[in-house]
Every structure is written in C-alpha cells, then in structure tokens.
Amino acid sequence: MRVLAIDIGTGTQDILLFDSSGPVANSVQLIMPSPTLQVAQRVRAATQARRPLVLHGVIMGGGPSHWAVNDHLKAGLPVFATPAAARTFDDDLDKVVASGIVLLDETDLDKYQSRATVVELRDLDLDAIVTALQAFGVEPAWDILAVAVFDHGNAPPDVSDRKFRFDYLAERLQLPPARGWLTDLAFTRDTIPSAMTRLAAVAATAPVTTPLVVMDTAPAAVLGALDDPFVRQQAEVVVANVGNFHALAFHLAHTDREAHIRGLFEHHTGELKPEQFHTFLERLAAGVLTNEEIFSSQGHGALVLDPTPSASPLLATTGPRQGFLRRWHHDNPPYRAVPHGDMMLAGCFGLLRATAAQLPTYKQDIAAALEG
Questions:
Q1: Exposed end of the chain (fewer CB within 10 Å): N or C?
Q2: How far apart are the C-alpha atoms of 302 and 292, rounded to whole Å?
Q3: The pTM is what?
Q4: Is residue 368 situated within a structural domain?
C-alpha cells in the first residue's frame, strides 16, 4: 500500500512516497521548492521581461508569490487574475481590486496567451511530482493522497483573520466528535469545513478517484514529531513547530499511545522574540497561558484544555526556524525531533498518522510499517 504525502510550506514542499511493504527509510523522499516560490520565480521573470501578468487557477499559499505580484504592480505592469486565483491574496475581492489587480473571467484567458505571461496558481502539482519520479525510474502510483497546507480560512469581513483562524482550531478540538487529538485537525475530502478554502482548493485539484486526506501543516509536523522514539517515550511533551511565517506549540500528554492535547498557542514567527517565545512556552506547560496575551502580541491565540501544570516537560522542536529557540529549562537546549531519522519529513509522517486515523481501512498497514 502506497501513500503520497506532501507537506507544502513557504520554503519547501516535502514529499514522501510511503510504501508499507518495506522499511520506511527506503521510501522515496523529495525536498523541493514550494509552489509559492515557483510562482514567484515566474512572476519575477515576467516583471523583468516587462510583460503583462495573467493569473488563473485556485487559491494557494501566498507570501513570496504575493510579494512578487506586488512588485510587478509597483513596476507599473498590469496584473489580471480570475476570482478564484485572486483569492490567494485576499478573500475579499474588493481589497484585491483596490491593490491594482484587474479581475477577469476564466473564459477570457485565451485572449491573453500571446501577449502576457500566464501563470496557474495551485498548491498541488501532481504532474511535476510524476515527472520527477519517472526521471528516477520510480513508478508514479499511489493508493492514497495526503496533503498538508496552512489555511487561514475565509473570515467574515468584520472578523480578524487571526481570531477566525484560532477560533477554528479551538472549535475543532472541543466540539463533538473531537477527542482532543491532533488528528481532529485532519479531514477527508467530504469533511473539509466550508471556511477552509485552501484545503478545499487542494481537494478540487486532486484526482477524485484517489482517497484524499488533508491537514494543516503545523499540526501535521507536530503529529509527525511524535514518531521520534525519544519524544514518544515522554509522558508529557511540548512540541513547537517553528515555521517561516507561523509558530504553533502543543502541550501534549501521552495516554494509551495517543497524544492528548492539554493546550496550544499559535503566533507569527516574525512577531516573536526568543525570550518572549520561551516565556509563552513555559506558561503553556504550566497551564496558565491566556488567549489575550498571545492575541495582544499579534499572535493568533491560546487555548488551555487541561490546566494541570507540568514542571519540566521535554521541549521538542520541528520546522525550518527551530534554531530560533536556543534554550529551555536550566538553559538546556530544546530537543530537535527527527522522526524516522528525518526532521524535514515530520509533516509527511504526521500525514501518515492522520491518514490512519481518517481512513481506518488502512490503519493497520500504516501503523505496522511505521512501527517497524
């Protein structure tokens, strides 16, 4: 049984073609530039060539692609976009138009083919992955597709994006049938919440004949970090995924081989200072961290489900900016989680665990392979 797991971040997309018939270490692995970086590269080439830009496709990750589009506009060059693609930059299309982007209908794309650079926006590019696999003689076939992306959600006009995002996380972990597990933040194709437009866009561009599991990137990485043997041995652990844009930390307690969530917080990595981050983590472990202190410092929010304090849990880290955290209790360094020997694939291993939870038919095969 094979699972194609793709963890799509801002800097890289981390790809694992998991095969349950052999050792996990033998599964094919790719660490490639993220889709948003690839789009940014194409946009900047259009800017350098002084060509109009036409964007179509679906909602995808922003950041570098959005910055490149803004620079294109600042250079005095036109940008046209279909509504679905334009929502990559803001769910409110009035704001997109106000930025200088001109909306066009999908049926008008042919008119621009010869006189503009046309770029498709999408997080999921299976054609590129198939090409890469075939180049190395790997059969591009899988039974399940599992994809992680960061989704802020489509917040109502009068609601803060940060508040909307964290309210969604809190609701998923507290309302039935939630169990307070990380896998509560994973979905099959038919269960994606309507407000999670980026997850829905992934589903819309995935083959309908293939079972699909989608999940948010940070919880996937934290879930994958629990496959590190040392992390798994801990009765309690704080796991922080420090991404390029967002940092999310969970206080977890192991019970019957499941990691129950005691608390969590999410912040913008760029808004944090090391000592401030350290304090938030300590207060999370103590069960006293408040939503207000995170939100008021430009973070998303905090939630404590179980205020039982933990004096000195292990702090494990994942993510491209985990070097941001340099110390923990008594100035000991945090533990860098390396599930199955590979930190970069933590999100992919989390996706495998989420797949086992969301598609019980495959649970035994996935668990047996991951347990070695």
A1: C
A2: 8
A3: 0.96
A4: no
37-83 pLDDT, tens digit each? 999 999 999 999 999 999 999 999 999 999 999 999 999 999 999 99
d(CA 85, CA 57): 5
**Residues 121 and 187: beta-carbon distance below 8 Å:** no
User: Domain of 325?
Assistant: 229-337
Each residue's pLDDT tens digit, 298-357 = 999 999 999 999 978 999 999 999 988 887 876 789 999 999 999 999 999 999 999 999
Q: Both 198 and 316 in a single domain?
A: no
Two structure tokens written together for 39 = 């789009």
191 plus 278 within the same structural domain: no
CB 246 within 8 A of CB 252: no
| Separation of alpha carbons 88 and 352, rounded Å | 27
φ, ψ for residue 265, nearest 5 deg: -150, 155
312/191 Cα distance (integer angstroms): 38
Number of domains the chain contains? 2
Alpha-carbon separation of residue 119 from 39, 116, 195 (angstroms): 7, 9, 25
